[in-house]
Amino acid sequence: MTEKERLYHAMHGEDTDRPPCICPGGMMNMITTDLMDKVNVSWPEAHVNPQMMADLAAANYENGCFENVGVPFCMTIEAEAMGATVTMGSKIYEPHVTEYAIESVTEWQKLPTVDLNTGRQKVVLDAIRILKQKNFDAPIIGNITGPISTASSLMEPTVFYKELRRKKEEAHAYMQFVTDEILKFAKAQIEAGADVIAISDPSGTGEILGPKLFEEYAVKYINQIIDGLPSEKMGTIVHICGHMNKVYKQMEQMHSEVLSFDSCVPMRSVKENIEGHALMGNVSTWTLEFGSITKVKQLAVNCWNSGSNIISPACGLGTKSPIENIQAIKQGIEEEAKNRCKNQMRLC
Asked: How confident is the model at residue 30 (pLDDT cuts 50, 70, 90)?
């Protein structure tokens, strides 16, 4: 199987020779300082230069880290395009919001719409076009920041969460505006050549919202994005951080082919409680940065044994993670697949 074929089959619940090993990008950043040094392409320059962004994403695949390419490498692009002030960070630290655009959900009409022909949103689209021209067998994953996380990056999060309860009519109007703008960016990524769209919404976790608001805001608006994407895509991935056991029922309502989980979520529990979705995760990013190659391989195989259809880090990589540890995820899965094949042949 090619990497693209393997991921497609895994996403749709079909047989594969082994689970694919991917890291989408976006919030689930896959870039490390080791990789930057290896190919002489670094942050923060790669956040604003499409060729550098594409080269860095390609290097991750070409150096045996993951079986995909993905851009961008942060989750601030949508908020910046809608008026938030963002710093580009450094070689070690990702971009982050430094100044909010509004003070209340009631002010959402002050926000500008996303202009796809300017800013870092254009950088991402151009980088996807460059990656498409490379004709990799690997899938191109485009990334967007989920509606709750984008909305809470445009205003003070504590105020935002309170107003979801106290100013529901205005909050829904605000969320609809944000969702429409995110969808516009996601559709443009598909048109530019992305095969998969990954939606990361860490601020939309059930731990913060609770089951009722999680369904009312997170599920509703994420599904609007998924349903609005072109049918030509391979599928979508949704990742939400934190403990999710209280919202398993609501997670099942997600229209995404793939659901991705943090390392605090037991994959066996997810497997037992959620049906109709491929499951993705969830190798500890702490172990990837500070553990041994042997331990990383063990965790990757444990994820497979516990029910993961797609193996990936549980969240974004620490930029100081050794490249050998990153490579060990796929190595561990490949070694396990060979062992299973040998055992099967003995049984036959």
From this structure: very high
